[in-house]
Amino acid sequence: MSRLVVMRHAKAEQAGPTDFDRPLAPRGHRDAADAGAWFARQGLVPDHALVSAALRTRETWESVAEGASWTLEPDLDRSLYAAGPETALDLIRLVPDSVSTLVVIGHNPTMASLAQLLDDGDADAELTQQLFSGYPTSAAAVFEHDGPWTDLREGGARLVAFHVGRE
C-alpha cells in the first residue's frame, strides 16, 4: 500500500518580484511547521517529495520538513507550478514504484482538484466533507493507493486523513 500526500502551499505574501517568486508570510512558515508536526505525529515519513519550484512551495517544504524532522531533499519541478490536475497526476505516475510514501506540494486550484479527482469515495463521511469543503493554504489530504504509481487513476485512492496546518 502506497501513501500519497497532496498539499497546498502555506500562506504566502500578497506580492513578490513575480508570482513565481512570492515568499511565504510569517504565518505560512508557522502553519507549514504545524503541518509537519502533524505528519510526524501520524508517523508519516516520505521517501520522495515532488514540490513545485516556486518560492512559496519550496519554503513550505522547508518548514514542513523542519516541523516533521525530515531530511529528505525534494524533487523541485518547475512544471508543477502551472500544472492542472491531470498533468499533476501524470507527474505522480512518473514516480518510481520503489517510493512508498510520496508528498506533493503545489498550488490551488490544482491541489484541491487533484485530491478530489483521486478520491474513491470510500472515506469516512466527515473526511470527505472536509476534503470537499475547501482547500485552504496548508491543507493536506493523505491517500492510500494499492498498486504502482503508473496505475494511479481518477477515483483510484482512498482518503485516510485530512489536515489544515494552523499554528
From TrEMBL:
Q: What Pfam family is a match for this entry? A: His_Phos_1
Q: Where is this region: Disordered?
A: 1-28
> InterPro entries, from UniProt?
His_Pase_superF_clade-1, His_PPase_superfam
What are the Basic and acidic residues biased-composition ranges?
19-28
Q: Which Gene3D superfamilies match?
A: Phosphoglycerate mutase-like
Protein name stated in the entry: SixA phosphatase family protein
